[in-house]
């Protein structure tokens, strides 16, 4: 189930300031990803995108590669309706491995991996703990004290004009001032990469974001 249809909002040309309480969610159920909402994009290699045929296991991206940074992501068709100075995001995610893996969920502007972002999850190129990543011209990766594992976790962040708060399973893990915060509205995204030469998988079974 997906709500609402973000493509309709784009047609109406709403901006985040027009819809201060706009909320979007997806529980990744059914037989196929809703391609009216989500777009699939490859970083490199031949990643596999699929709904998992198990109870409450959601959607999976398999990097399916043999080279560093093989993998891909899903995004919201360039529909950036969420405020970069007042937004909360929740992702329930799971890693296949605790090594050589990057699994991140959150927000990204213009479907551009080098553009403004606020993401949370794992990136073993930046350490072996769960982290929050903020990008706007440069990367700010702030690690939590929680080591990576292969269990389901509820990740959430609140991004304001001055700081970001990151929680894992409702426990505060990071609270930090953001000097180079994203400077543009953003849209939903979820990405999976292998950081070395062996394939890795990441799953997501719930995504929610709303303007505060």
Question: Which structural traits does this protein have?
Answer:
212 residues, single chain, 1 helix, 3% helix, 16 strands, 9-stranded antiparallel beta sheet, globular, 50% strand, 7-stranded antiparallel beta sheet, Jelly Rolls, mainly beta
Name of the CATH class: Mainly Beta
Total strand segments: 16
Helix content: under 10%
Tally of structural domains: 1
> What about the largest sheet?
9 strands, antiparallel
What is the SS-derived class? mainly beta
Series of secondary-structure elements, N-terminal to C-terminal = EHEEEEEEEEEEEEEEE
Oligomeric description of these chains: single chain
Number of helices: 1
The CATH topology is given as Jelly Rolls
- CATH architecture descriptor name: Sandwich
Give the CA-CA distance, first to last residue.
22 Å
- Our estimate of the beta-strand percent is over 45%
Q: Which residues sit in consecutive blocks of at least 5 with pLDDT less than 50? A: none
Gyration radius from CA atoms, angstroms: 16 Å
Q: Whole-number average pLDDT? A: 90
* Morphology: globular
